[in-house]
Amino acid sequence: MQSLPITIQLFSIVGTLIFMAFIARLIVRGKLREEYSFVWIVCAIILLVFSVWRDGLTQISRLLGVFYPPALIFLMAIFAIICFLVHLSVVNSKLQHSIKELTHEIAILKKEVMDMQTPGTMVQTNEKQSNLT
Predict the structure, then answer these.
(1) pTM of the entire structure?
(2) Which of 7, 103, 109, 122 has its CA 20 to 30 A from that of 93?
């Protein structure tokens, strides 16, 4: 019976290390920004701690008064997901604001280009330049 928990422990340690290597690879390739990688690295470190420290979850759940230790995992995961979703909502709002500003700037530049390409406008511009000289 003792070999089964050790096998699961080794499997979870190896899986966590592979996950950390995957995150590092995404960062190096530029597919994952550093600000988002921090969250995933912290999650991987927490998984690694609980993989190495077998009774950690049980002790922490007793300390917090949680009757069923795996329920603590779900509680922490739900909390982490909510925090991450709030962060992504803030980032999304900033991006929408930036897109709106850029759209306005493009519209203004298009109008200016159209005004410059209109023949009547060019004549007025040339007349103003000739009057200045």
Answers:
(1) 0.62
(2) 109
**Helical packing angle, 69-117 and 56-64, nearest 10°:** 90
Q: How far is CA 97 from CA 47, 87, 90, 100, 103, in A?
A: 37, 16, 11, 5, 10
CA distance 105 to 86: 29
71: CB partners within 8 A, 6+ apart:
61
pLDDT, tens only, 52-88: 887 888 899 999 998 988 888 889 889 989 988 998 8
Q: At what angle do helices 69-117 and 119-132 cross, to 10 degrees?
A: 70
Q: How far apart (Å, rounded) are the C-alpha atoms in residues 47 and 15?
A: 10
